[in-house]
Write a structure and sequence with these properties.
By secondary structure, this protein is mainly beta. A six-stranded mixed beta sheet has the order 1-33-32-31-30-2, with no helix packed on it. It has a four-stranded antiparallel beta sheet with strand order 3-36-35-34, with no helix packed on it. It has a four-stranded antiparallel beta sheet with strand order 4-5-6-7, with no helix packed on it. The N and C termini lie far apart (69 Å).
């Protein structure tokens, strides 16, 4: 027996050492293969600012526009007032997060200049503070210790910086949490400032399991949250007077696969069947102001995570809200009036049976940028997704939509397009069609907002660890760009 016990102790010790090794920060550049492919394609950009474009309205309970979330702001506009890299002697640096695979999917920047982000590994979700110049870690905090195998993401992947520069997120333990980055003699630690248990409230909604995707305050400061099981909830900031509703009509339950958007006119949610606008009554009750069903097609398309819209709602000022549908044949940009849900346009993009959008649209004034994700099949597979990037404009007085341009040669498999108003560039993360078909060679790519033409591409690295796999592009106020990828994080900046 003593030999058996001794073997068990040794096994447990070895497992613990192995776990610590795997979960440790390798603190090294992301390994790249030495394949002879072009380091730079194209030419440096000449800034062409977007005329008369305005930034979204500042949310009273969130950090400044451009800096408060993965999609930049409460409107989910994915646009920046400041400039990103222009391609002048670009410098690229990387940092690996996990020894196996760990994608630092979302990054933003607090008012003290630190980079704040979430990194996802097979072992969970971690909140990380970094020095944005060196990519050195300042502090980390585990949010979710295990990701359910086969489940779609939740549990802190989406987060927001609030008006006090604190991180607002939801956990897989069914809690809203607020984390504050504290500094003590140049040492940084994460401190839990607030935690609101939602398990009892969500239990009243019945059918689960309840995986919280996103949480964001409304214009009055109440927290709103959504779950994969199609539950929309609202609760006061002190954790009292909460309400939940389950989406669906005529006995048909609806699910949610995307984040929510918040504007002065309420909270906007897209389910796998319909687009919604909600408000909170004085009593705390959740009021559905309108519901607009869209064409979800006959089945999920190749390259989508669910059957329905793949886009987070994008607010265009206080007039319109936009998504894409999942119609058979050609996918459509759908634009609705925020007031009453009236259909402004159902506008087709990309080729028939070869188009879908699994990422948020980017909004610049009355223009929307959509990318094609059809065919994308995961980080280890060399992407075979269909090309396609389109700019669709809402016509004056909301009299429909028109295609300004459509580029059917550029392929951005899974990165949300980000737009700089200051230099008129759309930033993507792509491969290059001239490279070998079986090669993971990834490029930070700039496209002209006005024409849809590729301006330049900067090689970030080769190998599947450089696949961003839905990791977001972020542009810092100083002009440096960051992309979350399977091997951690890459930084791109102009050298001159």
């Amino acid at each position: 027996m003593k030999y058996l016990l001794g073997s068990i102790v040794l096994l447990l010790a070895a497992s613990a050492v192995g776990w610590l090794y795997l979960d440790a920060d390798p603190a090294r550049p992301t390994p790249t293969t030495g394949v002879p492919v072009p380091q730079f394609i194209g030419q440096p950009a000449i800034p062409r600012p977007v005329p008369d474009a305005t930034v979204p309205t500042q949310h009273p309970f969130l950090a400044p526009v451009g800096l408060n979330s993965m999609h930049n702001d409460a409107a989910q506009s994915d646009s920046y007032a400041w400039a990103g890299p222009l391609g002048h002697a670009p410098r690229v640096s990387t940092r690996q997060f996990h020894r196996l695979a760990g994608s630092c999917v979302a990054q933003t920047f607090n008012q003290r200049g630190q980079m704040i982000g979430t990194c996802v590994t097979p072992f969970g979700v971690t909140l990380v503070a970094r020095d944005p110049d060196t990519l050195d870690e300042l502090a980390r905090q585990v949010i979710t210790r295990w990701l359910p195998v086969g489940e779609k993401f939740s549990g802190g992947v989406y987060f927001h910086l609030d008006h006090q520069d604190r991180v607002l997120l939801a956990t897989n333990d069914l809690a809203i949490q607020v984390w504050q980055l504290d500094a003590n003699e140049k040492r940084f630690t994460w401190k839990l400032a607030q935690s609101i248990d939602l398990s009892t409230l969500l239990a009243t909604a019945g059918q689960g399991p309840h995986r919280i995707i996103d949480v964001m305050p409304d214009w009055q400061g109440n927290y709103w949250f959504i779950t994969r099981a199609g539950v929309v909830g609202s609760i006061q900031r002190d954790g009292t007077n909460g309400r939940v509703v389950s989406l669906g009509e005529s006995g048909q339950r609806e699910g949610i696969d995307n984040a929510l958007a918040v504007g002065e006119k309420g909270v906007f949610v897209v389910s796998d069947h319909a687009m919604y606008r909600f408000e909170r009554a004085h009593s705390g009750d959740i009021v559905t102001r309108w519901r607009a069903a869209y064409d979800r097609g006959s089945a999920a398309k190749k390259g989508t995570m669910g059957w329905g819209a793949g886009t987070t709602p994008t607010l265009m000022g206080s007039e319109f809200v936009a998504i894409t549908d999942n119609a058979d044949g050609r996918v459509n940009v759908m634009v609705y009036g925020q007031d009453d849900g009236s259909e402004v346009c159902k506008h087709p993009i990309f080729l028939a049976d070869r188009g879908t959008t699994e990422n948020s649209l980017s909004a610049v004034g009355r223009s929307l940028i959509a990318e094609n994700n059809f065919g994308y099949s995961g980080p280890r597979n060399v992407p075979e997704s269909e090309p396609g990037l389109a700019r669709v404009d809402v016509l004056p007085a909301g009299q429909g939509c028109s295609t300004q341009w459509e580029n059917l040669s550029i392929t951005s498999p899974s990165a949300v397009p980000k737009v700089s108003l200051a230099n008129g560039l759309i930033y993507l993360y792509t491969r290059d069609e001239r490279n070998p078909d079986d090669l993971h060679a990834w490029y930070f790519t700039a496209v002209d907002f006005h024409s849809g033409e590729v301006v330049f591409k900067v090689l970030t690295g080769t190998g599947w660890l450089f696949n961003n796999h839905y990791g977001s592009i972020s542009i810092a106020p100083d002009g440096a760009a960051y992309v979350g990828m399977m091997g951690g994080l890459v930084r791109i900046e102009d050298g001159l």
